[in-house]
């Protein structure tokens, strides 16, 4: 930034604050630990539910209900943070709640406690999500938002790589005295407490905030004051979200495709490792996509990411049609889904900060989270119901159509800034 000094006729260069600062690193570390915790559980949850004899529709219902609760929490916490001008304390509480919730699965012998644990965990994620994103957007220069969000998602996803690897190793190599086949899964759920609690401690220790300018607007007034350009952007996000099913459905699909050849336990382990591959792609592409968007714009890259998700879902349709249980092919579909998530997570957050004024960032991120959560509720529920009542082919073809339509809306209707 240049500042003129008329008395000396000199130009003083005032450097912009660095984008890779304590807050960005601290939030990345907290998300890494939190994702390691809940992805430890997510990677093996479909196999655990299969042992309990629960259907794909049950999994879709649990995931959809959890996402809907998360959406409501995002909307409320984002607006409340704009009203108070403070975000950190509530975000820390959200991290701790998510960190404790996955261990509840260890007590489950039916769907109810799985439902309770998932809903509590996603309620915590809903509380913290818009607050963290608003803090992240306010911690870096505007021209570096893509890099900051991409870096954060990379850290977030490293945890999502570590978690499933730990889960698979524990199930495959640790010996358990219990003859109960669910005992290895329950041990994994208990151990999620370690990184889960550490995530809340990391956020509390490393992240700082300066109190923002509170807004006095009531809830609906704040929502209605969001720019029209942002609403068009939300339309594309919402349509894509209606097809963007929870990744546990993808793991379940791989488990079902591989079970006839490898047996349920080995198939569950392989599917969990494919999910690790998904997260490797997610982590590997998050920062490059974010950094590239700072130079080239975000709209086209986001539309391309949405299209990658549609292609992944179409590949699963093909796998069920032609009974393709080839590991390399399924891993490629997980990779496309990871690329899609990298674009979605890095660019949706950065575009929100581009399109909305800073004192409404909490509300804007809350509305985005709500739109995505409603989409997750519908998509996971529809995929699960169509899978159970008709076929997985119908379920994933439905998802393909909605994700492709979302890509078109983002590209042709959403503004660049």
What does this structure look like?
The protein is mainly α and 417 residues long. The chain has one domain: MFS general substrate transporter like domains (Growth Hormone, Chain: A, Up-down Bundle). 78% of the residues lie in helices and 2% in strands. The protein has 15 helices and two strands. Strands 1-2 form a two-stranded antiparallel ribbon. Strand 1 and strand 2 form a beta hairpin. Helix 12 packs antiparallel against helix 15. The longest helix is centred in the C-terminal third of the chain and has 33 residues. It starts with a strand and ends with a helix.
List the helices and strands and how they pair.
Layout: E1 2-5, E2 10-13, H1 22-52, H2 56-84, H3 88-101, H4 111-138, H5 145-173, H6 183-191, H7 193-206, H8 219-224, H9 228-241, H10 247-262, H11 264-296, H12 299-321, H13 327-355, H14 361-389, H15 392-413
Antiparallel strand pairs: 1-2
| Gap from first CA to last CA | 22 Å
Largest sheet: 2 strands, antiparallel
**Poorly predicted regions:** 1-14
Tell me the overall shape: globular
């Amino acid at each position: 930034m240049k500042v003129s000094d008329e008395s000396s006729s000199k130009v003083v260069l005032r450097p912009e604050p660095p984008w890779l600062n304590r807050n960005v690193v601290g939030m990345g570390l907290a998300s890494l630990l939190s994702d390691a915790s809940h992805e430890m559980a997510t990677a093996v949850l479909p196999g655990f539910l299969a042992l309990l004899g629960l259907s794909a529709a049950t999994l879709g219902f649990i995931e959809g209900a959890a996402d809907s609760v998360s959406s409501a929490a995002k909307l409320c916490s984002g607006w409340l943070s704009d009203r108070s001008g403070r975000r950190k304390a509530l975000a820390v509480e959200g991290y701790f709640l998510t960190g404790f919730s996955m261990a509840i699965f260890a007590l489950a012998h039916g769907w109810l406690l799985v439902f309770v644990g998932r809903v509590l965990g996603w309620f915590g994620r809903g509380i913290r999500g818009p607050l963290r994103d608003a803090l992240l957007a306010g911690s870096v220069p505007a021209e570096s938002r893509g890099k900051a969000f991409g870096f954060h998602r990379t850290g977030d996803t490293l945890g999502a790589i570590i978690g499933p690897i730990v889960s698979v190793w524990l199930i495959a190599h640790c010996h358990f005295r219990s003859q109960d086949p669910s005992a290895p899964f329950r041990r994994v759920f208990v151990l999620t407490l370690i990184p889960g609690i550490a995530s809340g401690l990391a956020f509390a220790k490393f992240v700082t905030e300066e109190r923002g300018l509170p807004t006095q607007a009531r809830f609906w007034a704040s929502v209605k004051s969001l720019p029209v350009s942002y609403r068009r952007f939300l339309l594309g996000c919402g349509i894509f979200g209606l097809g963007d099913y929870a990744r546990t459905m993808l793991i379940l699909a791989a488990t079902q495709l591989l079970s006839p050849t490898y047996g349920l336990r080995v198939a569950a382990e392989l599917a969990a490792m494919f999910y690790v591959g998904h997260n490797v792609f997610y982590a590997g592409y998050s920062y490059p996509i974010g950094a590239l968007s700072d130079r080239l714009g975000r709209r086209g890259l986001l539309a391309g990411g949405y299209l990658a998700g549609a292609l992944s879902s179409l590949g699963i349709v093909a796998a069920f049609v032609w009974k393709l249980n080839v590991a390399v092919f399924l891993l490629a579909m997980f990779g496309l889904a990871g690329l899609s998530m990298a674009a979605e997570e890095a660019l949706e957050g950065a575009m929100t900060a581009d399109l909305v004024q800073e004192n409404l960032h909490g509300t804007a991120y809350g509305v985005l989270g709500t739109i995505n959560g409603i989409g997750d509720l519908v998509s996971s529920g529809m995929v699960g119901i169509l899978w159970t009542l008709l076929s997985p082919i119908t379920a994933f073809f439905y998802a393909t159509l909605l994700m492709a339509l979302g890509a078109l809306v983002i590209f042709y209707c959403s503004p660049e800034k």
